[in-house]
Amino acid sequence: MKIIEYEDKYLDDVRKLLTELEEYVVAIDKDALDQVHPDYYEKMALVDLENVNKNNGKCYLALEDNQVIGLIMGTIPPFDKYDYLDYKCPKRGIITELIVTKDARSKNVGKSLINKLEDYFKEKACEYVLVDVFAYNEIGINFYNNNGYHSRMYTQIKEIKSH
């Protein structure tokens, strides 16, 4: 396996992986709020890659036998001009996407991808790495916990219906 920086010739592979990830999220969403919109395949990869480009980020791909088997995307976004009021504002990188195709899981592909992105963040003098993990994604939560991450914030949700 080798890890390379994203190239445009792999756009369709990125689209497939992101769609696979979103389909997994839909399958485990106990609130049934996630969806794979008909435009998802065509547009989401472009939105994510634009976010990476605008925010000093990187997209890395894991290849095995010239096939893309995983990807990671991350950004280094600027702080809001008022964040300093209630936060020390250490420089941080954010993992925005991580997916390893089903057949390649449990082979250290995810760990290799995360290490590559963390190395990039270190080169850019980031002090922390943040990642949002879907609450129902126990596999993802365990993966990040096993790689030294911990929860710092929780998002709570409650459905309310108008009468």
Description:
By secondary structure, the chain is of the alpha+beta class. It has one domain: Aminopeptidase (3-Layer(aba) Sandwich). It is built from 4 helices and 5 strands; from the N terminus they run βααβββαβα. A 5-stranded mixed beta sheet has the order 1-2-3-4-5, with helices on both faces. A hairpin with a 2-residue loop joins strand 2 and strand 3. It is globular, with a radius of gyration of 17 Å.
Brief sketch in words of this structure:
The mean pLDDT is 94. This protein has helices at 11-28, 40-54, 109-123, 138-146; strands spanning 2-5, 58-64, 67-75, 92-100, 128-131. With 163 residues, it is of the alpha+beta class.
Chart the SSEs and their pairings.
Blueprint: E1 2-5, H1 11-28, H2 40-54, E2 58-64, E3 67-75, E4 92-100, H3 109-123, E5 128-131, H4 138-146
Helix pairs in contact: 1-2
List keywords for this structure.
single chain, 163 residues, alpha+beta, Aminopeptidase, five-stranded mixed β-sheet, 4 helices, 5 strands
